[in-house]
Structures are given as structure tokens and as C-alpha cells.
């Protein structure tokens, strides 16, 4: 029968056998999945693992610092940080199509890893052959790899990999659902703030901007997202909702009035959802006072935003993310 202890034991043995005396690198995204995958692989092969954190510029406010400080403090893992913001923004310039964005982000991610790999090899010798990924069971199913269902979105860690990939993959969470991953993380001794973190997609804020992704738009969305997260946390709602994507409709403008002037700004969409495993979801019935506070703060504090709207669609028919 399924226990977190047996999953860990089984995976540790399998990873040791797969890797032998070679080396692995693991991308940390700041999320639960990659953190638990990394901690599991570190348990199996210790210092043969080097973690790489790619700052693709699509992260939320404070996220890079959280990985650099909290995760390293919790695990003692070897970490290499790569600042690749400029490269990602250049690759995404002029691109509005959601699938194209996902493919570009996935491709650039792997390219940056290959660079990091080359640097790690220069440092540690030629045995860096494995790439650890925090792929979960729902990712496998939704990318058509599990039950033969249609490809709904190419998740960047499953469907979007380039064909000239040079690594063998280690995917220790491939059979698990999110709640099981959290239990494994807890059993591995990861701190509560990491284990209970709400999910955040690998392509980051890049798939929460409908339209072209630019530095200005990212900065705008980062501010709005930080306000929404702050107010949800202050209201004690983090455990009640699965996640709350905040989406910028960058190509949409509407007329507003602020002070004694007319504005012509962008709308921000709040997408709070409740879910067990992200395969299906319902929109969260957030208290009106909390919605009001978020709306007031975002329209007051975020430049060029003059409207906040609430997404009241379940999944299906809507997916959780907008792209
Ligand atoms: P959707 O939008 O498909 O999202 O209903 C389901 C869950 O998956 C997250 N998500 C991703 N996670 N890479 C990830 O690691 C991705 O490309 C990706 N796309 C969506 C999403 O945040 C939600 O929790």
C-alpha cells in the first residue's frame, strides 16, 4: 500500500541505480514540485547533484530571493543561479500565441541548462548526464503521455522539450499527485513554507500576460500579483484556495476615471480556484471584503491598471491558467 516512506525508499533506490557515480543537475523553480524532486534526488545521491536556478525574468516578486535563501538554508544543496532575463525577453519579443510562448520558454530553459551543464562539467568533470524534473502525474496525463488523452497544453516540462535534448531525465514525482508530493516533501524535512506553497507554472508570468510579454508588462503584473498574494495571506485564505493566478490583459484597454481625470488602462483578472489535484477546479467564493481590498489596492497602486475583474469559470471548461 502507498506510504510516503515507501515512495521515498523506492525512488531513492531507483535514482541511485539510474545515476550510479555520475552527476545530475536539477532546475529549481521556487515551486513545491522541483523543490521536492531536488530534495529527493539529493537524498539519493547527495553531492552528485547540483541545482540550477534560472531567473528567466518571469518570476514573481521576491521569488528569486526565496530560492536563494530559504531552500538552500533548508537543504544545504549546491546551487548555481543563472540570470537569463534578457535572453528570455529577447526570445519572447513580439510573440503573443500561448503555445508559441510555452515552446520558446521551454526551449530557452533547456538551452540555459546546457550552458549551466557545460560550466558545471568544466568544474566537476564530464559525468553530468541527468536532468531532474518535478513532473507530476497530472502533467503527464494532460500532455497526452499518460492515458492517450488529447494534448491540452504543452506543459513546458513534458511536451515542450526540444528534440536535441542532451540529458537523460529523472522524474521521481511522475506517479504522484500534488497532495502526495507535499507529504513526501514533509517527510523529507522540507520547511512548511516550501511544502505548502501554492503551485506556480514553470513558464511563470509569461503565460499570465495575454498578448506580448515585455519587461514593463511583467513589472506591472508582478506588482498586481504581489498585492493579491499579500491580501490573500493576510486574510488567512492560503490554505482554502489552490492558487490564484493574476492575469494581465495587456492588449485590452478600457476607460476609467481616477481623481478628476479620464484613464485608459488595462484590466487585471483575478483567478482564485479551489481544487484537489488541478485536473478539475472550481472558482473560489472569496469573501467580498477581500476582493474589494485587492481591487482597491491594485487600481490605486499599479500604474496603468484601472479595472479588476473576477474569473468565475470552473475547470472544465476553463483551464486554471489563461494560456
Ligand atoms: P491548467 O492551466 O492546465 O493548470 O488548468 C493546471 C495546473 O498546472 C499549472 N501549470 C503548469 N505547471 N508547468 C508547470 O510546472 C507548466 O507549463 C504549467 N502550466 C500550468 C497551473 O498553474 C495549475 O496549477
TrEMBL record:
Q: Which keywords appear in this protein's UniProt record, sorted alphabetically?
A: ATP-binding, Glutamine amidotransferase, GMP biosynthesis, Ligase, Nucleotide-binding, Purine biosynthesis
Keyword Ligase applies: yes
The reply on keyword ATP-binding is: yes
**A GO molecular function for this record?**
GMP synthase activity
Catalyzed reactions: XMP + L-glutamine + ATP + H2O = GMP + L-glutamate + AMP + diphosphate + 2 H(+)
Annotated Gene Ontology cellular component terms:
cytosol
Query: What positions does the domain GMPS ATP-PPase occupy?
Result: 2-197
Pathway terms, separated by semicolons: Purine metabolism; GMP biosynthesis; GMP from XMP (L-Gln route): step 1/1
Could you tell me the EC number(s) of this protein? 6.3.5.2
Q: What class of enzyme is it?
A: ligase
- Annotated ATP binding lies at 29-35
Q: What does this protein do?
A: Catalyzes the synthesis of GMP from XMP.
The subunit field of the Swiss-Prot or TrEMBL record says: Homodimer.
Report the protein name in the record.
GMP synthase [glutamine-hydrolyzing]
Amino acid at each position: 500500500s502507498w506510504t510516503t516512506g515507501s515512495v521515498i525508499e523506492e525512488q531513492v533506490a531507483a535514482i541511485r541505480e539510474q545515476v550510479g557515480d555520475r552527476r545530475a543537475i536539477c532546475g529549481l523553480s521556487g515551486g513545491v514540485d522541483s523543490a521536492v524532486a531536488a530534495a529527493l534526488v539529493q537524498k539519493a545521491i547527495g553531492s552528485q547533484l547540483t541545482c540550477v536556478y534560472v531567473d528567466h525574468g518571469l518570476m514573481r516578486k521576491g521569488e528569486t530571493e526565496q530560492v536563494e535563501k530559504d531552500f538552500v538554508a533548508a537543504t544545504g544543496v549546491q546551487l548555481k543561479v543563472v540570470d537569463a532575463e534578457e535572453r528570455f525577453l529577447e526570445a519572447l519579443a513580439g510573440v503573443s500565441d500561448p503555445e508559441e510562448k510555452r515552446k520558446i520558454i521551454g526551449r530557452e530553459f533547456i538551452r540555459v541548462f546546457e550552458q549551466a551543464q557545460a560550466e558545471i562539467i568544466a568544474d566537476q568533470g564530464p559525468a553530468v548526464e541527468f536532468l531532474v524534473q518535478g513532473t507530476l502525474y497530472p502533467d503527464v496525463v494532460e500532455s497526452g503521455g499518460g492515458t492517450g488523452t488529447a494534448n491540452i497544453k504543452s506543459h513546458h516540462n513534458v511536451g515542450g522539450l526540444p528534440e536535441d535534448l542532451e540529458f537523460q531525465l529523472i522524474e521521481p514525482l511522475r506517479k504522484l499527485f500534488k497532495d502526495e508530493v507535499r507529504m513526501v516533501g514533509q517527510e523529507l524535512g522540507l520547511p512548511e513554507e516550501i511544502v505548502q506553497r501554492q503551485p506556480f507554472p514553470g513558464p511563470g508570468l509569461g503565460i499570465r500576460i495575454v498578448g506580448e510579454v515585455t519587461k514593463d508588462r511583467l513589472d506591472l503584473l508582478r506588482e498586481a500579483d504581489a498585492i493579491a498574494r499579500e491580501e490573500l495571506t493576510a486574510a488567512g485564505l492560503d490554505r482554502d484556495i489552490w492558487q490564484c493566478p493574476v492575469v494581465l490583459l495587456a492588449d485590452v484597454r478600457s476607460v476609467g476615471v481616477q481623481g478628476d481625470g479620464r484613464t485608459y488602462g488595462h484590466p487585471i483578472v483575478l483567478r482564485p480556484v479551489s481544487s484537489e489535484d488541478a485536473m478539475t477546479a472550481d472558482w473560489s467564493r472569496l469573501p467580498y471584503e477581500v476582493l474589494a481590498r485587492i481591487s482597491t489596492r491594485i487600481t490605486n497602486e499599479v500604474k496603468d491598471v484601472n479595472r479588476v475583474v473576477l474569473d468565475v469559470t470552473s475547470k472544465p471548461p476553463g483551464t486554471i491558467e489563461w494560456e
